Amino acid sequence: MTVDLSRLSLNTATTKALTLEEAVDVAARAGLGAVGLWRDRVAEAGLERAAAVVREAGLRVSSLCRGGFLTAVDPEGQRAALEDNRAAIVEAATLGTRELVMVVGGLPANPSPGQAALPDGDRDLVATRQRVADRIGELVPFAEEHDVRLVLEPMNPIFAADRGVLSTLEQSLDLAADFAPESVGVVVDTYHVWWDPKLASQIARAGAEGRLAGYQVCDWVLPLADDSLLSRGYMGDGYVDFPTITRWVASAGYAGDVEVEIFNEQIWATDPLEAVRRTAAGFASAVSPHLTA
Amino acid sequence: MTVDLSRLSLNTATTKALTLEEAVDVAARAGLGAVGLWRDRVAEAGLERAAAVVREAGLRVSSLCRGGFLTAVDPEGQRAALEDNRAAIVEAATLGTRELVMVVGGLPANPSPGQAALPDGDRDLVATRQRVADRIGELVPFAEEHDVRLVLEPMNPIFAADRGVLSTLEQSLDLAADFAPESVGVVVDTYHVWWDPKLASQIARAGAEGRLAGYQVCDWVLPLADDSLLSRGYMGDGYVDFPTITRWVASAGYAGDVEVEIFNEQIWATDPLEAVRRTAAGFASAVSPHLTA
Questions:
Q1: Partner-chain contact A123 B158, CB within 8 Å
Q2: Buried b vs exposed e over A193-232: b needs ≥16 C-beta within 10 Å?
Q3: CA A157/CA A166 separation, integer angstroms
């Protein structure tokens, strides 16, 4: 069986052990059309060189991961976050992608992802979400100057305390509504949103508004891993209904790359070529047949 | 400091090591006004005797946990689920509570809570949710005959695959809308819904519709426990903004009991009197002051 993998994008988080050069090589040899890049791998390679490596391999950059962490209360923390996000915007533009994925950050009471709450920490979720909206508003003009879109990523509520206070696609689209669709979009990551009762209607809305900036696929597997961030699997190994969600995404007019971003210790420990082969097989069986509306 | 604990209810899941008689004794001696009962503890004590024990201690039964698990595809599984839920309805009525909490069940692809998906299992979440609505509709007349309310419990999406496909309060209220508010209600459990961007508006809606049938409190703590079901803490130990959510519940007109249901191995291993003391302290500091609108 020959499957067209031209819309499949390998996110460098899936092949964590590889350098950017190695990940690009694996993706190109497997016949994929794109890569999704994390900033740490780009920094290791050097920004200009990273851009050249991807270009020379004939691949697209489907997105840069990630901007965000915008929830600081103190002015110094807010200044630092804006500065870091402006750097990410420049990197995205240099790498030739319009889509900068934003993981917006958790509650101030969280000292760092996965850790216990500070006893006297700030747990005001409503105010924290408002700060995210305020910071996005401050970043939009700079993003527009660089022709980069801030792509809001609603995250599974399992991460609401410590990684991302945007929890649903509807909430993300409500936030985005104050801005042009070319400036603020959303990404649908099945791991984060597969459970959402309003997923069908909000994917359609994202398409109709011109904000559907990315489609990321990986599966929700049980039992949860010790580190829940890593509790992801190949498409088909868990509980996500990929055919249905993929048809919703296709019906919404999405014609971009499908990025596979799997955080999983076991997968990281396997041969990267085998990981890409399994990724392509899951894509071919559960996703690809449903990508054309 | 003397705190009025008359609206505090001890759920027997919080003091798992105790028999029903012991839990009732602990709750009464601590000055609580009510207990929330699990069916396993009731069955051990015997239904009539359980009712008598609570009555003689001068306590209310704030709710019976739990009915549900309504997602079977096969007719035999559906018949068995209806039969079990009718038994739970009779038990609730006998125990003197109107509120039967419904944990509606997960996807057919889930063989049992916490376990990996069946490779060829049914992952159709939309259809599964429709079956829940169908089964609720079939149970309502029997519940009405016994003056018992089916109380839908939206569950944290971490449990959507294996325990409860109702994931938000809005979704639960949409399902309930086909029925009288005396017949189908909702419970707000902070552990399950604290992250919901629409929580304020949907709690207000639940109150306005007369469907706010319970308020359960426990905290979202990190790091997650190995068994995520058990990853709950005393109020104040985690990330939930109890003052804010409690004010929303009070403003919605809720005047019932506040049930503390904490699944936590560490808490189960402590002296039950100490667990109740900690529970009362968390209630007094984070919840009670905000209970009057």
A1: no
A2: bbbbbbbbebbbbbbeeebbbbbbbbbbbbebbeebeebb
A3: 8
Q: Cβ neighbours of residue A291 under 8 Å, at least 6 residues apart?
A: A7, A246, A249, A250, A258
Residues 44-73, chain B, touching A (beta carbon < 8 A): none
* Residues B226, A189, A110, A224, Cα dihedral to 10°: 0
Give the closest residue to A283 by CA, choosing from A243, A225, A231.
Answer: A243
Collect all residues with Cβ–Cβ distance below 8 Å to A216 and sequence separation of at least 6.
A11, A36, A187, A188, A189, A190, A191, A258, A259, A260, A261
How does DSSP classify residue A159?
G
Query: Has this prediction a pTM greater than 0.90?
Result: yes
pLDDT in tens, B3-35: 889 999 999 988 888 999 999 999 999 999 999
Is the minimum CB–CB distance between A234 and chain B shorter than 8 Å? Answer: no
User: Which residues from chain A sit within 8 angstroms of residue B223, using beta carbons?
Assistant: 114-116
pLDDT grade, residue B242 (50/70/90)?
very high
Which chain A residue is nearest to residue B158, measuring alpha carbons? Answer: A158
Identify residue B248 by its one-letter amino acid code: W
pLDDT tens sequence across B59-105: 999 999 999 999 999 999 999 999 999 999 999 999 999 999 999 99
Rounded to whole angstroms, the Cα distance separating A178 from A209 reads 12
Across the interface, whether the CB atoms of B117 and A244 are under 8 A apart is answered no
Q: Which helix (H) or strand (E) holds A161?
A: none
In chain B, the N- to C-terminal Cα span, in Å, equals: 22
Judged by DSSP in three states, B201 sits in: helix
ipTM summary value: 0.96
Is B239 an interface residue toward A (CB < 8 Å)? yes
